[in-house]
Design a protein that fits this description.
It is built from 19 helices and 25 strands. With 559 residues, the chain is of the alpha/beta class. 53% of the residues are buried.
Length: 559
């Protein structure tokens, strides 16, 4: 049974098919796959362009309750559902994000699923994979270098050194780099100024790659990046520095989606990786759109809970790409619901039906929120061995009272055989035509009103609060023609509030907006709320301490 094997041991024993065989199942000829070894490949831009006239399959979003240390298993469920749909005779593709090195060596772990519902090669996926993140990091930092170089050689664009807004990035959790000073050391090194690093998954270049439709659109968006302002407050764009062409060259291969497979040889497209707590939390538009042309069902995920990932999937990705999801799956575990009901992690193995019922308030809020977008939802109870029948029934009864259905899923232990019931329910919802998808707010709503709408309708707070300087900044962007952009909330993933310790379904709180950033190339405005950081830190005992090469040269400790 899977409980006696680690995720990486299960992945290492996988019976993988040659990637060309996986491609042929989707109708991708071998000449349109650019192989990276035997088990992963990029899909050519030419093939993607040739599919644009085809009819779309049905798009299924997998989201979750607010994450807890108990674990929810959203990616595991996404992968399992893709396998389950194929098992019951549907042609399905899994579309997920690539893994960031920061969480791998930090606390959260990888992003390939778990147990017998994984995407392989798991170790490659969770490390360097096909180099996409390195390309994004390099393109981003090329722009950083060009800004300081331009200032050094006379600053013909009149950049106000105090108003350089473009920060550097790296794909690692390193709190020491959040705030730095650059160009120290005298005249030869330029003009000293304050700067800082974000993690690569928070980069606007990452968001641009994930929202672009092709290389031409990519270069246009890169050129639209605002990097600084002049003394008269007029913006300086990446194209003003002639950076967009070189950046697009660095991203040429990274723009192509990666094709891999699940443990059961279902096709999986793994591409892009913005976090949902500090970015928009969805895999690339080009991967999702291509998969929809090739399959009956596309199962994708959005990061963290539905208050962040699903909201951004609907309000940013679907709005920008014209996608219309047919159904949503909300993942919950009995353990996580007990934590939301006040149980400590060390006590989660004991039956506590009343705690489950209290914690279901968090699940109920997410069900209501998803339905606000007009998308029918089903709850997936990701099974743990410690779950009791009474606790499971409490969840099912609660969800039924909300007008939805909860389905017990055992895909972690049994693979696709353990998730057939959910697959059939998803097909039922998708085929019913019940989805009446609509974003939460209109394009022409004022920017701060969009923030307030999310706070009130999704977080159930009283209001968003912000200093006059932040409101003035938003008004300035509206006057400059950016008022029709959606907003991307950067907020703790652990709570509907900005207090990560306030679990359950709080109401009446305020959401302080401490900073706003204009991502003109990506096409959204970021509102940074509470204490959330765009460069995370490592925990006191990082996961890197248990990652090593064994005597056979195999990787151990990845999860």
């Amino acid at each position: 049974m899977s409980e006696f094997k680690s995720d990486i041991e299960i992945a290492r024993a996988a019976d993988k098919k040659p990637i060309q065989e996986i491609g042929l199942r989707l109708g991708i000829p071998p000449e349109h796959l650019l192989p990276y070894g035997h088990d992963k490949a990029k899909i050519s831009a030419e093939f993607i362009a040739s599919q644009r006239g085809r009819k779309d399959g049905k798009l299924i979003l997998v989201t979750a309750i607010n994450p807890t240390p108990a674990g929810e298993g959203k990616t595991t469920t996404t992968v399992g559902l893709g396998d389950g749909l194929n098992r019951i005779g549907k042609k399905a593709v899994v579309c997920i994000r690539e893994a960031s090195l920061g969480p791998n060596f930090g606390a959260k772990g990888g992003a390939a699923g778990g147990g017998y519902a994984q995407v392989v090669p798991m170790d490659d996926m969770n490390l360097h994979f096909t180099g996409d993140f390195h390309a994004i990091t390099t393109a981003h930092n090329l722009l950083s270098a060009l800004i300081d170089n331009h200032i050094y050689w006379g600053n013909a664009l009149g950049i106000d050194v105090r108003r350089v807004t473009w920060r550097r990035v790296m794909d690692m959790n390193d709190r020491a780099l959040r705030h730095i000073v650059v160009s120290l050391g005298g005249v030869a090194n330029g003009f000293p100024r304050e700067a800082g690093f974000d993690i690569t998954v928070a980069s606007e270049v990452m968001a641009i790659l994930c929202l672009s439709t092709d290389l031409k659109d990519l270069q246009r968006r890169l050129g639209d990046i605002i990097v600084a302002y002049r003394r008269d407050r007029t913006p300086v764009y990446a194209r003003d520095l002639k950076a967009d062409g070189a950046m697009a060259v660095l991203l040429k291969d990274a723009m192509q989606p990666n094709l891999v497979q699940t443990l059961e040889n279902s096709p999986a497209m793994v591409h892009g990786g913005p976090f949902a707590n500090i970015a928009h939390g969805c895999n690339s538009v080009v991967a999702t759109s291509t998969a929809l042309k090739l399959a009956d069902y596309v199962v994708t995920e959005a990061g963290f809970g539905a208050d962040l990932g699903a909201e951004k999937f609907f309000d940013i990705k679907c709005r920008k790409a014209g996608l219309k999801p047919a159904a949503a799956v909300i993942v919950a575990t009995v353990r996580a619901l007990k934590m939301n009901g006040g149980v400590k992690k060390e006590d989660l193995g004991r039956q506590d039906v009343e705690a489950v019922k209290r914690g279901c308030a968090n699940l109920g809020r997410h069900i209501e929120n998803v339905k606000q977008f007009g998308v029918p939802a089903v709850v997936a109870i990701n099974h743990f061995n410690s779950d009791t029948d009474a606790e499971i029934e409490a969840v099912k009864d609660f969800v039924a009272a909300q007008g939805s259905e909860a389905v017990l899923c055992r895909h972690w232990a049994l693979g696709s055989a353990g998730i057939e019931d959910l697959a059939r329910k998803v097909v039922e919802l998708a085929e019913s035509g019940a989805s009446q998808f609509s974003p939460l707010y209109p394009d022409d709503m004022k920017l701060f009103d969009k923030i307030n709408t999310i706070v009130k309708r999704i977080y159930r707070g009283n209001e968003a609060i912000a200093d006059k300087s932040i409101r003035d900044q938003l008004h300035g962007w509206e006057a400059a023609g950016y008022g029709n952009l959606p907003v991307c909330m950067a907020k703790t993933q652990y709570s509907f509030s900005t207090d990560p310790n306030l679990r359950g379904a709080p109401t009446g709180h305020t959401v302080p907006v401490r900073e706003v950033r204009l991502a003109a190339g990506a096409g959204f405005v970021v509102a940074i709320c509470g204490e959330i950081m765009t460069m995370p830190g490592l925990p006191s005992v990082p996961s890197s301490e248990k990652i090593f090469l064994n005597d056979d040269g195999d990787i151990e400790g990845l999860s």
